[in-house]
Amino acid sequence: MSHRRAIALISLASCMVALYLALWKMGYMGALGCGDGRGCEYVQGSRWGWFLRVDVALIGTLGYAAVVLVALIGTSPALEDARWPTQVLMVLIYAALLFTIRLKYAEFVLLKAFCPWCAVSAVAITLDAILVTLDWRRVRGLRSVTAALPHATS
């Protein structure tokens, strides 16, 4: 399985989790299935569950959907060795990783809580960051190999 396909698969799963949380916040779901105590509902209902008046879960849903779309486009035979899909994925994924670090700090340190659904997203975006870095090494290496090949003359 290619790095981009793995990114698409992981991000699709996280997109579904983020959508579940967003739908819960909109009132379309019952109680969150994540255990007792200071967990999901506490974290989701806190001020950290919003960013610039937009639901963080909705931001995650749209962000993961964008990652899935770019990763799938990048798996097409014509683009599998192109650099631009990886570069776009790097921007999306690294920005999401930084945003996730901010949210995890708020969740653990400030709120002293744990949301298992949020942990799924944190693990997923970390795996995506590793995979996109590996894919960047791959496509960057292709350029080096191509440049080193002697050009055919007629």
Could you characterize what this model shows?
The protein has 154 residues and is mainly alpha-helical. The protein has a single domain, classed as VKOR domain (de novo design (two linked rop proteins)). 69% of the residues lie in helices and 3% in strands. A two-stranded antiparallel ribbon has the order 1-2. The N and C termini lie far apart (38 Å). The model has no long low-confidence stretch (mean pLDDT 89).
Write the layout of secondary structure elements.
Layout: H1 3-25, H2 40-45, E1 50-51, E2 54-55, H3 56-73, H4 84-110, H5 116-148
Helix pairs in contact: 1-3, 1-5, 3-4, 4-5
Instruction: Name the structural class.
Output: mainly alpha
Taking the alpha carbons of the first and last residues, their distance comes to 38 Å
Arithmetic mean pLDDT: 89
Which architecture would the CATH scheme give at its second level? Up-down Bundle
The CATH first-level class comes to: Mainly Alpha
What is the number of strand segments?
A: 2
Which radius of gyration do the C-alpha atoms yield? 19 Å
Any low-confidence stretches, pLDDT <50, length ≥5? none
Principal-axes geometry comes out as elongated
Number of helices: 5
**What's the story with the biggest beta sheet?**
2 strands, antiparallel
